[in-house]
Write the structure tokens for this entry.
Amino acid sequence: MEPAYKLSRRKFLQAAMVMAAATGSGVGCSGARTPWRFLTVDEARTLAALCDQIIPPDEDPGAAWAGVVNYIDRQLCGPLDHLRRSYRQGIAAVNQSSRMLYGSAFAELAAARQVDLLTLMEQGRAPAEAWKQIASAEFFDLLVEQTMQGFYGDPRHGGNREGTSWKMLGVPYPPIRGRLHFDVSKQ
């Protein structure tokens, strides 16, 4: 039986080259050679330091360990993709402000300096030259909101690793819908 469509080696190689080129041409949320979908490694490092100042580790894990950066990264490639520019500009402005004020990138600063810069951002008093694209207070508010969501939300969204915040609060893992209405153990 003769195949319905004959594909020459030349056509196959042309198609394979087109597919290979198309695979690597995605912008933003691609499967690049980093563990992140949207963030660069440096952006993720800065974001981890920022989030750990909002929910710092103490006797319980902080935001970075709980996977808040992973949560934010996943959301930026999904339902919150409209915030990509805000994060790119905000993280860049944080590092620019940090270098202007303290001579180092934010993640390299001592914790007290990081808190000082976050306080300036919250008050809208961070160096204006660094914050031309997004207001520092606006980025600070966004960061706090997203950090809280990633830390306290459902782990299936990429944050709250191992139910960290729920364990910290003494809250059991929420039951699956329908589980309260039907006793599945008797089936």
Observations:
- The first helix runs from residue 9 to 23.
- Residues 16-26 have pLDDT under 50 and may be disordered.
- The radius of gyration is 22 Å.
- DSSP finds seven helices and no strands in the chain.
